[in-house]
Amino acid sequence: MAEKVNPATEGVSFNEMNNGAPPPENYEAETAGRRGSIAMNIVQNPLTRSSHAQAVADAEMYAETHGMPEHKALFGRAALVARDPNSFERLQELDEPERNALVYERDHKWHGPTMLWYSISLCAIGAATQGWDQTGSNGANLSFPKEFGIDSGTGRDQWIVGLVNAIIFLTAGLIGAFITDPLNYYLGRRGEIFLTALCLTATPIGSAFTHSWQGLFAARFVLGIGIGAKNATVPIYSAEMAPARIRGALVMFWQLWVVIGIFLGFCANVIVKDTGPIAWRLQLGSAFIPSFILACGIWFCPESPRWLMKHGKHAQAFQSMNRLRAHPIIAARDYYYSYVLYNEELKLARGSGYFSRLWDCFRVPRIRRANYGASTVMLAQQMCGINIISFYSSTIFTQVGYSDTQALYASLGYGAIQVVFTIPTLFLIDTKGRRTLTLITFPLMCIFLLAAGLSLLKTTGSSASQIGPVVL
């Protein structure tokens, strides 16, 4: 079948149209629809299908018909920049301040207005809340079972303590994750984060005032719902605000701030360790600190431009984007390109239903391999037992002969090591690749977890033979 040529892209190389990506081995120009684009792994800039004049006219019409007539000319120029991002310096339509702003953005990857970094910082605090919520119970495990008479360490008592610890992740996955979509739809990203932050503020405080294990269980039950709903929204909010050039790095910043939250939780456990019988209450209650900051700070952030756009609030969406970018031309470029891509998504979605898109996860070889690989890694990560250390490290250290105080300090060291070894990942993930890092770290984690677990089975001989593997 003869190849059709788009007049807007005639004479333009495949690499130029696709941002330098090499052409696929079996490129079929007539392959239409979503499945074709998925199978060929092509993400083509939709604006390249329009001529220079048509791109300007479409953008100006968009601004005119969506309540932004005063920005009509700005959107026309922004469409040209978005159409060919690497050639903006040759555009005669741009004035000098706009060209300078685009050059500065290109040469300074991490440059952004204060509001952008303020909003990203709030998202980082949202990640830290998860780590702190995990480790608050770590220190409390040394004393709350005694308070509630469930400290025998066997049978029913053992199951109760385990359930109180584990319930936050059970409800996070089974309830919190499933209410995220309706909460986001009706409340927006900011509203959903604010509501879950209030939940994560109230439940640690409630945990600190409980007088039975049932009450503590109930408080942590609700805590888990808040964690699940928050964790599903904060990364999306962060990604929808961030410029494309740093969006990938911010994904790793989420994990960094989770482990920073774990470390801060261990710090709080050590700080309040000498407060007597109420120590465990303070250790659990201290987790309200980051969520309280998040709840107070989130309303000063702009709403997600993409969420506003999807709900028909285009003028507000552009105002929001303007607060997150260093210059109006940058804001208009990013916002209009996001709108164009969103329209493409709507066109593709009309051609296939939910179940056909779900079937693509198994039918299309490229997606099937990615699906199997990602699912295997995530299941292995969550089922390998590493999270047990975050919940029970203090208890484990006391079982091998440490005093309660020594165990808390040892746990603090564990948290510090997590932070230290997460930082190099930020730089290695783009140079060595995710697969390489996974293949190196997973076997090592398996070996040391196995050694730590088997060492606890030893009941005779010196305690050093137990402490060594556990510490490693």
UniProtKB/TrEMBL annotation:
<feature type="transmembrane region" description="Helical">
    <location>
        <begin position="159"/>
        <end position="179"/>
    </location>
</feature>
<dbReference type="InterPro" id="IPR005829">
    <property type="entry name" value="Sugar_transporter_CS"/>
</dbReference>
<dbReference type="GO" id="GO:0015791">
    <property type="term" value="P:polyol transmembrane transport"/>
</dbReference>
<dbReference type="InterPro" id="IPR036259">
    <property type="entry name" value="MFS_trans_sf"/>
</dbReference>
<protein>
    <recommendedName>
        <fullName>Major facilitator superfamily (MFS) profile domain-containing protein</fullName>
    </recommendedName>
</protein>
<keyword id="KW-0813">Transport</keyword>
<feature type="domain" description="Major facilitator superfamily (MFS) profile">
    <location>
        <begin position="119"/>
        <end position="472"/>
    </location>
</feature>
<feature type="transmembrane region" description="Helical">
    <location>
        <begin position="249"/>
        <end position="272"/>
    </location>
</feature>
<dbReference type="GO" id="GO:0016020">
    <property type="term" value="C:membrane"/>
</dbReference>
<dbReference type="InterPro" id="IPR005828">
    <property type="entry name" value="MFS_sugar_transport-like"/>
</dbReference>
<dbReference type="GO" id="GO:0022857">
    <property type="term" value="F:transmembrane transporter activity"/>
</dbReference>
<feature type="transmembrane region" description="Helical">
    <location>
        <begin position="436"/>
        <end position="457"/>
    </location>
</feature>
<dbReference type="InterPro" id="IPR020846">
    <property type="entry name" value="MFS_dom"/>
</dbReference>
<dbReference type="InterPro" id="IPR050814">
    <property type="entry name" value="Myo-inositol_Transporter"/>
</dbReference>
<feature type="transmembrane region" description="Helical">
    <location>
        <begin position="115"/>
        <end position="132"/>
    </location>
</feature>
<feature type="transmembrane region" description="Helical">
    <location>
        <begin position="191"/>
        <end position="211"/>
    </location>
</feature>
<dbReference type="Pfam" id="PF00083">
    <property type="entry name" value="Sugar_tr"/>
</dbReference>
<feature type="region of interest" description="Disordered">
    <location>
        <begin position="1"/>
        <end position="24"/>
    </location>
</feature>
<feature type="transmembrane region" description="Helical">
    <location>
        <begin position="372"/>
        <end position="392"/>
    </location>
</feature>
<comment type="similarity">
    <text>Belongs to the major facilitator superfamily. Sugar transporter (TC 2.A.1.1) family.</text>
</comment>
<keyword id="KW-1133">Transmembrane helix</keyword>
<dbReference type="GO" id="GO:0015798">
    <property type="term" value="P:myo-inositol transport"/>
</dbReference>
<keyword id="KW-0472">Membrane</keyword>
<keyword id="KW-0812">Transmembrane</keyword>
<feature type="transmembrane region" description="Helical">
    <location>
        <begin position="278"/>
        <end position="301"/>
    </location>
</feature>
<feature type="transmembrane region" description="Helical">
    <location>
        <begin position="217"/>
        <end position="237"/>
    </location>
</feature>
<dbReference type="InterPro" id="IPR003663">
    <property type="entry name" value="Sugar/inositol_transpt"/>
</dbReference>
<feature type="transmembrane region" description="Helical">
    <location>
        <begin position="412"/>
        <end position="429"/>
    </location>
</feature>
